[in-house]
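Page 42, continued from yesterday. The earlier attempt failed because a stray header line got pasted into the input along with the sequence. Redoing it now with the clean sequence only.
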Amino acid sequence: MNENSWTIRTCLEWTEQRLRQNQEENPRLSAQWLLAHATGLERIELYMNFDQPLTDDQRVVLREAITRRLQHEPLQYIVGHAAFRYLQMMVRPGVLIPRVETELLVDLAKASSPKRVLDVGTGTGAIALALLHELPECFVVATDISEDAIRLAMENAERLGVAVLSRLEVIQDDLATSLLDRADMPGSFDVVVSNPPYIPSVELESLPDEVKRYEPRSALDGGVDGLDLFKRLLDQATQLLKPGGKLLVELHENRVSEAAQLAKAAGYKSVSTHTDLAGRARFLFAELPAWHLE
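This time it went through. Structure tokens are written below.
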């Protein structure tokens, strides 16, 4: 084939075929994402420019992208972004890719119209930035132990402009440990929200290749029972929440009930669990009592 034969249509069909041969779950959609990445077009625009030949540079980018995908690297890392609610989040290796299931955690957090939220383990900043975008009067403190995550969360925040940056504090921290020693933090949050590492260590090797080979283990491994980080977070949230404040956490489907019992034992009330889009138990809701000083 000559260079002009490598049109968007031809490349889309060829890419889809290669991915299908590699047992890609949705080869057509993946091919669209890779072509859009290579050409700089939106996916819908590909179909409006079917006869446009790819440039030499675009073909190089496409070949590299296909090679990475054939090695099961996540599409989001290859194209450099992932959709989360109404936002487009920049993503890159070393930081967990935000999932659509986690969007439901934002809905739970928004339900009480909080004015002050702590997002523990912010990663790309997806939860924190979605809340800031959708709740104009909300202030968010976001923490993460990973320097790469902190840097990426700030880059994503900067893309949303000063209106978001002025209502955001990003802190590198082991969960929220350092906040306990700050006079302005304990008892100050309406909501503590988190999507912590929650995969039991023994299950890590059974994860899909594109997860266990490419996403950071530190953002996945929840310890022996998947609740190591949750147990620490539960104690910290008790100190950081206002009376009547709410703790919202995404957890492993087989550990949500146990987490709920731990929350009740720690003095939380109105403890409930919520399902994800597939109907699996995934989220814990727990509320501190509204103590009144006499």
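Notes: DSSP finds twelve helices and nine strands in the chain.
Reminder to self: strip header lines before submitting.
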